[in-house]
Amino acid sequence: MGLWLSKLYDVFSEFSGSTPARILMLGLDAAGKTTILYKIKLNESVHTIPTIGFNVETVSPVKGVSFTVWDVGGQEKIRRLWRHYYQNAEGLIYIVDSSDKERLSEAKDELDGILNSDEMRGVPVVVMANKQDLPRSMSPSEVADGLGLPKMTGRKWYIHGACAKTGEGIFESMKEMADLVKTNKKSSIFTKFFRVLMLGLDAAGKTTILYKIKLNETVATIPTIGFNVETVNPCKGVSFTVWDVGGQDRIRPLWRHYFQNTEGLLFIIDSNDRERMAEAREELMGILQNDEMRHVPLVVVANKQDLPNALSPSQVAEGLHLHKLTGHKWFIHGSCASTGEGIYESLKEMAHLVKDHKKSSKR
């Protein structure tokens, strides 16, 4: 079988007895994906033609072990189909032609597009800087810089030089992929995922808050016509999928379509808009009286506290009649979306309320 393949078998034996790990292999056309796939599978250098659809191979080195690799074509017209393969991917192997400096920025754009997809959130990535045998190939560190890997947040990554023809570097890359997938699976076991709905009147600052949480940046926003959805991690072991739904008058009747399976409600208030407090209260009470929102914990974010005429959180609580609420745990905190002040505290309390509610529901 040879030393190279036996070493690879040792890597995959770590998955013995577990669910098969689904690995996606992507990269631009002519990067060497298919050659690498069949080097892993057959320990042979095979003559390949451009992949039009996909190749899928399951490496089963020992009984009960499988590592399924999907190699999807990288030609420009095919790349828009990549997203159809993202679901349930547990690892991404991204192949780069290290000798093709002119297309490195294109490879970066495509990688960014993959990793920004919700279905690929948190998935570990291993970059193979292929064709290291060619004289003018970039080093792995140069490829890493060109792809912006050092700036990557929210996922584990690794890069290694490789030569598909000889197999050099493939074992090390696959071993690291195995380690990253295992680590990611373990951490996922201890992470609780909750579905949180973010509502409020138009111009309350919902989307600004969402992207302050997500990016720690103040972004210019326009009125949300449909919805924005992002996964955020307010504290260790907790992930929120936050649905930010538009608050314009004509959109509010659609809010109820998002109530199902909601585990927490973030209601955003413009503390500076005293004239619309009664309107905000009516909308909030309408939400909480819906059967699908019964007992769902509530956190009110009294936004725009930086403005001179803003109501205090206690005044907002009175205006919303929060003290008269029964059947819902609630919390209110002042905030400023542009600076981020008060947002972390509000989300941390949301995490506590949701976890407590889920515990009490099981009793």
TrEMBL record:
PROSITE patterns in alphabetical order: ARF, RAB, SAR1
SMART domains for this protein: ARF, RAB, SAR
Pfam families xrefs: Arf (PF00025)
Descriptive protein name: ADP-ribosylation factor 1
UniProt keyword annotations, A-Z: GTP-binding, Magnesium, Metal-binding, Nucleotide-binding
Binding site for GTP: 27-34, 74, 130-133
Signal peptide positions (record): none
InterPro entries, sorted: P-loop_NTPase, Small_GTP-bd, Small_GTPase_ARF, Small_GTPase_ARF/SAR
Record-level Gene Ontology MF annotations: GTP binding; GTPase activity; metal ion binding
NCBIfam families found in the cross-reference section: small_GTP (TIGR00231)
Family: Belongs to the small GTPase superfamily. Arf family.
KW Nucleotide-binding (keyword) present: yes
Species annotation: Mytilus galloprovincialis
Keyword presence, Hydrolase: no
Binding site for Mg(2+): 34, 51
Domain of life: Eukaryota
Gene Ontology BP term (one): establishment of cell polarity
